[in-house]
């Protein structure tokens, strides 16, 4: 399908598709006239990219997952390697959640104390 068709199917802009292509997330063949022609898997790949972004994956991480999935489909990678990558991301999220919980606890404790800024503002 041509880029305009993929835009219509995915709801993404031309610029976004070109950006994803430059980032190695999406690939297109070129026609004789230089138009981009995407394979039938492109729409599903874009859905996966958007899902991964929503789950907190960076574009670099998404590229790595896509490369591993491509290798898995070609038979040059085992499913366990993709699982290991996803488990690593889950561990990062758990670590970040722990950091955020610590920050929340600290902020909550600060709110329980008299705020120095508020006391200064109330004094004449």
Automatic annotation (TrEMBL):
<dbReference type="InterPro" id="IPR000551">
    <property type="entry name" value="MerR-type_HTH_dom"/>
</dbReference>
<feature type="domain" description="HTH merR-type">
    <location>
        <begin position="1"/>
        <end position="68"/>
    </location>
</feature>
<protein>
    <submittedName>
        <fullName>MerR family transcriptional regulator</fullName>
    </submittedName>
</protein>
<dbReference type="InterPro" id="IPR047057">
    <property type="entry name" value="MerR_fam"/>
</dbReference>
<dbReference type="Pfam" id="PF13411">
    <property type="entry name" value="MerR_1"/>
</dbReference>
<dbReference type="InterPro" id="IPR009061">
    <property type="entry name" value="DNA-bd_dom_put_sf"/>
</dbReference>
<keyword id="KW-0238">DNA-binding</keyword>
């Amino acid at each position: 399908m041509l880029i305009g068709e993929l835009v219509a199917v995915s709801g993404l802009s031309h610029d976004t598709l070109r950006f994803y292509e430059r980032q190695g997330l999406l690939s297109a063949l070129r026609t004789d006239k230089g138009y981009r022609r995407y394979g039938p898997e492109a729409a599903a790949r874009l859905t996966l990219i958007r899902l991964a972004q929503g789950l907190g994956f960076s574009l670099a991480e998404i590229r790595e997952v896509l490369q591993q999935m491509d290798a898995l489909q070609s038979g040059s990678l085992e499913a366990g390697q993709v699982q290991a990558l996803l488990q690593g991301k889950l561990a990062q999220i758990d670590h970040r959640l722990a950091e955020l919980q610590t920050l929340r606890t600290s902020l909550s404790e600060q709110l329980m104390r008299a705020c120095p800024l508020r006391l200064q503002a109330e004094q004449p």
